[in-house]
Amino acid sequence: MAVTITSNLTQLDSCDSNTGWNAGDTYSGFHREGTACLGDQISTSVTYFTKTITSTDLSNKIIYVWMKMANPESLANGGYRFALGDGTNSRGYYIGGYDTEVFSRQGWFRFLIDTGNPPSNYDQRSGSSAPNFSAITEIGVGGIQQTKAVGNSPNFFWDSIDYVANNSYALLIGGGTSSNPGTFEEIVTEDVSTSNGWGIVRKIQPGVYGIQGAIRFGDGGTSDSYFEDKDAVVIFENPAVSISSSYYVLDLIGNSTGTNSFILGSKVGSGDSATGSNGCTVQSSGPNVKIDFSASNFDTVKIYGSKLYKVKTGVTLASNTSHEFIGNTVDQCAQVVANTTIIRGCTFSGYTSDTDGALLWNSSIDIKNCVFQANTDATNDPHAIEHPAAATVTYDNLTFSGNDYDINFTASSGDLTINATNGSNPSTYEKSGTGSVTINNAVVLKVTVKDSNDDPISTVQTAIYKVSDDTELMNKDTDVNGVASTTYNYTSDTDVYIRVRKSSTGTTRYRSTSATGTITTAGLNVVIRMEQDSIVSS
User: C or N terminus of the chain, fewer CB within 10 Å?
Assistant: First the structure.
């Protein structure tokens, strides 16, 4: 086993013994954690099993509990419940049912409750208010069956009750070596063992993993850590009951002594043309998720050919010029803070907020060969790139299509000048300050005039006009190579028409002619052939 995992969960009760519980017996052999679990019989009326504990601050905490039941009621009917009390006020919160059991192993389910956002459905067991979560003295579980219990056999079981601070990581993933790095499959293997029984990471099917907690990679002490995976799908699962915003986090922690490495996918090619393959998908099935790769002292972060999907609380890359984010898709996520990570061959799409942009620009950004598309919304006016400061910047093969706006200039003053190169095609922008936005996207408009023998014709008067309003874009004679050209500031594809004529004396004269074309990100390059006039006057 390459990985070493440190749990950040604090155990309220192992449920290995019934000491202190008002009811329930111990059972082993099918427990989820430790050496035993607790169990008893319940029926079609709700039954609670509680334990008095030393006053504990459980405010803004995520509490996890293992439970299993033969025939539970639905969540709406409180099939599974968790009790919290402060000595005066006690409530039994509805946290699951037969319609929410998604975290299965031998019938066990790891349910959770967020005291920062407690469920709105509950039993008021005592008192008249919510318990004081900062001074909890009673914990417990409860449930209700769909059908009446028969006989005296236990049909309701519970095991290890744990908690972690809201927005704090539940598991720290370390270990591994450069030749034998850790994988998501190894995390699952460690999680499901009864010696751990954390219930944070599960295997949905081969290569697909469900997570219901914050996880951190690296080593915050002095040791090395290596993690690398390919072709995995990682889903931050939607729990049965709501949790506070920004709870699910995937982040990194490094140290200045050891070597820490985190790699997803494989790099294909090199330099600016590199792309990625066999990457991983990291997505949310509903809850807010944050991904933060910006940890200092983290030696290697390489994300290749991967997809980040619905990461709604933000994606932060590192201020590290050796880290790479190549060949990835960022879809329907919150803003990507690029910092100085190398970004190549990525697609940014589906951004919907209208206050900033899918990508946050900075003065040291290193981005080329990327696509910004379909950042659009029926209500808002999202943008592809936010520029928070006045500057003159260069876009290097950054292409835009289907965005409500390509650029959002949010500085209160000063001017933004964008020099678009290598096929970059920004055209639309919004600004919130007093400054101006100038897009310099020079493309070449070139017309070559030849005769029927394919020889160039010089001194041909050549003009280009916009189809939309007849604006003249060029009017000049061809040179000795039969070429007339000019530069044009591209903003969008533009249909044009071209007229050529040559007045000359002597025996060789040409008929005037015309042609059409479209100015694109590549400019315009048209060849026109002129025919000799058969009627010649001396």
Answer: C
Are the C-beta atoms of 409 and 435 separated by less than 8 Å? Answer: yes
Cα gap 27→108, rounded to integer Å? 14
CATH H-level superfamily of 443-529: Carboxypeptidase-like, regulatory domain (2.60.40.1120)
Q: How many residues does this entry show for the chain? A: 538
Kindly state the tokens that stand for 487: 């530069």
Dihedral in degrees, nearest 10, Cα atoms 329, 240, 139, 248: 10
pLDDT the model gives residue 535 = 67
The Cα 474–Cα 464 span in angstroms is 5
Cα–Cα distance for residue pair 149/408, rounded to 1 Å: 63
d(CA 525, CA 212) in angstroms, rounded, equals 56
Which residues in the chain land under pLDDT 70? 102-106, 245-246, 505-507, 535-538
The domain defined by 10-163 folds into Jelly Rolls (2.60.120)
Identify the pLDDT of residue 505: 66
In b/e form, how buried is each residue of 374-399, taking b as 16+ CB within 10 angstroms? bbbeeeebbbbbbbeebbebebbbbb
Residue 537 confidence (pLDDT): 45
For 106, which DSSP code?
T
Residues 17-61: pLDDT tens digits? 999 999 999 999 999 999 999 999 999 999 999 999 999 999 999
3-state secondary structure of 55: strand
* Residue 536: predicted pLDDT: 56
**Under 8 Å between Cβ of 214 and 221:** no
Q: How far is 311 from 290, CA to CA, in rounded Å?
A: 6
- The pLDDT score that the predictor gives to residue 538 is 45
Assess contact for 479 and 524: CB atoms under 8 A.
Answer: no
Q: Look at residue 96 and give its three-state secondary structure.
A: strand
Query: Which residues partner with 328 through β-bridges?
Result: none
Looking at residue 151, what is its pLDDT? 83
Strands 383-387 and 359-360 come out as parallel
**Residue entry with tokens 């972690």:** 164
Q: Which residues of 175-192 are buried (b: 16+ CB within 10 A; e: fewer)?
A: bbeeeebbbbebbbbbbb
pLDDT for the residue 244: 83
C-alpha dihedral sign at 257, 291, 212, 133: positive
Asked if 51 and 22 touch (Cβ cutoff 8 Å), the reply is yes
Domain ranges of the chain: 10-163, 443-529
Q: What is the dihedral of CA 125, 126, 128, 134, to 10 degrees?
A: -100
Contact 166, 73 (CB under 8 A): no
* Cα gap 357→381, rounded to integer Å: 10
pLDDT of residue 417: 96
Q: Which residue has the tokens 């008929």?
A: 511
Closest CA to 234 of 309, 304, 319: 309
